[in-house]
């Protein structure tokens, strides 16, 4: 049975991850929850029998009995440091998007994972869903012809429009985050997953 540790027990954890982890009791067990806000760590740990709580990250990484996988659900600007430390400590890591703020940082994490012999995963998981695996198969087998044009579109109000959001929305407007990283990544992930990596990129941006 895999032992999981959860880093960051805020809105993303309570909405998207903890409910799913509770359904995997026959295969996985959450043994430790870290958050700098003790009440959030305690609320998350209460969902899993015997789970420990931590408000200090170093103590979390040294959890007695160890962990197999660390799930990084911290704010985006912290991903590089949190994930890197977990890999260095010898854990596999699943990180929320983005994996890091820059390509250079992402490559650093890949190098650490390779050196440590650990697996590094990053959301979103679009390409492992049944529908996208099927679409990828159709393309690879040339059953729908060769795609020549792809168009994606996504629009929402961002954190201001999230019903019931309990976190601090200011992080989404800071350097290294923004709408492309927060929501546009889904479309980029789908396009490159289905059609392969981009050969050339042109980009425009602005604030309305």
What's the short version?
The chain has 208 residues and is an alpha/beta fold. It has seven helices and six strands; from the N terminus they run E-H-E-H-E-H-E-H-E-H-E-H-H.
Describe the protein's architecture and organization:
- The protein has seven helices and six strands, in the order E-H-E-H-E-H-E-H-E-H-E-H-H.
- It has 208 residues and is α/β, with parallel strands linked by helices.
- The protein has a six-stranded parallel sheet with strand order 3-2-1-4-5-6, with helices on both faces.
- Helix 2 links the parallel strand 2 and strand 3.
- Helix 4 runs parallel beside helix 5 and helix 6 crosses helix 7.
- The N and C termini lie far apart (49 Å).
Keywords:
208 residues, 7 helices
CATH H-level name of the largest domain... which superfamily? Answer: NAD(P)-binding Rossmann-like Domain
Report on the biggest sheet.
6 strands, parallel
Which H/E pattern describes the elements? Answer: EHEHEHEHEHEHH
Summed over residues and divided by their number, the pLDDT gives a mean of 92
Helix content: 25-40%
Instruction: Point out poorly predicted stretches.
Output: none
| CA(first)-CA(last) distance | 49 Å
Q: Work out the count of structural domains.
A: 2
- CATH architectural designation of the largest domain: 3-Layer(aba) Sandwich
The structure class reads: alpha/beta
Question: What's the count of strands?
Answer: 6
The helix tally amounts to 7
Strand content: 5-15%
Q: What Rg do the Cα atoms give?
A: 18 Å
Strand arrangement across the biggest beta sheet: 3-2-1-4-5-6
Overall, the morphology is globular
CATH class of the largest domain: Alpha Beta
Can you tell me the CATH topology of the largest domain?
Answer: Rossmann fold
């Amino acid at each position: 049975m895999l032992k999981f540790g959860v880093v960051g027990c805020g809105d993303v954890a309570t909405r998207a991850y903890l409910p799913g982890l509770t359904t995997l009791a026959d295969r996985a067990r959450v043994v430790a929850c870290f958050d700098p806000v003790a009440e959030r760590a305690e609320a998350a740990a209460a969902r899993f029998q015997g789970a420990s709580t931590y408000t200090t990250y170093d103590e979390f990484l040294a959890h007695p009995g160890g962990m197999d996988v660390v799930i990084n659900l911290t704010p985006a600007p912290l991903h590089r440091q949190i994930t890197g430390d977990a890999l260095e400590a010898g854990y596999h890591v699943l990180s929320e998007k983005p994996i890091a703020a820059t390509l250079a940082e992402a490559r650093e994490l890949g190098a650490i994972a390779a050196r440590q012999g650990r697996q590094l995963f990053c959301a979103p998981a679009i390409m492992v869903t049944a529908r996208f695996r099927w679409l990828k198969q159709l393309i690879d087998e040339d059953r729908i012809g060769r795609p020549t044009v792809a168009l994606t579109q996504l629009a929402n109000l961002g954190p201001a429009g999230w019903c019931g959001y309990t976190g601090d929305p200011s992080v989404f407007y800071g350097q290294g985050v923004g709408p492309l990283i927060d929501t546009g990544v889904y479309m980029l992930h789908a396009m490159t997953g289905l059609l392969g990596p981009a050969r050339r990129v042109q980009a425009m941006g602005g604030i309305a």
